[in-house]
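Q: I'm writing up a methods section and want to include an example of the input and output format. Could you take the sequence below and give the corresponding predicted structure tokens, formatted cleanly so I can copy it straight into the document?
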Amino acid sequence: MSTVIYPSPIFGPVHSRRLGVSLGVNLMPPDGKVCTFDCLYCECGFNSDFPAHDRRPTREEVHDALKAVLLRRHTDGEPLDCITFSGNGEPTGHPDFPDIIADTVALRDRFFPEAKVSVLSNATFAGSERVRNALMLVDNNIMKLDTVDAEYIRMVDRPVQKGYDVHKVVESLKMFKGHVMIQTMFMTGTADGRSVDNTGDRFIVPWLETLREIGPCGVMIYTVDRDTPAHGLRKAAPQVLDDIRNRVEAMGIRCSVAY
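A: Here is the clean output for your methods example:
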């Protein structure tokens, strides 16, 4: 079972396959998960295995901790490619998310103006106007969309919200008008005796059609790379990922692959 629970509010930096030297910002408690998804492949484990008891960091705590790290790295001449909101759950669920983003952009501009601000999100709050306006301020607005198949989402992504509707999420993603990157996990294998393979045309064709509707500035596809809480999940083969990337790029959309 995966047990990667991140410190809060700042962790790293880590060397990301996609974002380079990335300083993490975790807006969730440091002792557990608070997430609107409960993905079978989450490196932080299942929500029920790591319930959080501490509170989330405040806006002021995030600002002060981030400022201290950025000042030190700037003074010491240490490189930084990205400031990335991720960690133990859905970052956009923090009640002060818009203000925290504004603070972060200001600190980035002061200490590392060439670094990117990124948000890794499962898109469950993309329909919120205040969240969407905040995400328009970041460089890399990275939204998860593993598929548009509702049954697969219930089985693999496992939304906590009873009213989750992927079609409403897609409509929200369209509202970014291109200022969004779509991140998709492709994998094979099984969970509880059921296939989790989303690399076939049953899943790929509708996903590609939805990408055309959303019109993202880019797509990130990746596969299982770390321990997962569900057993039986397997990496998608490099050739399979390359083929998917080629189909995305054939539509004129930039696509990167993390094997």
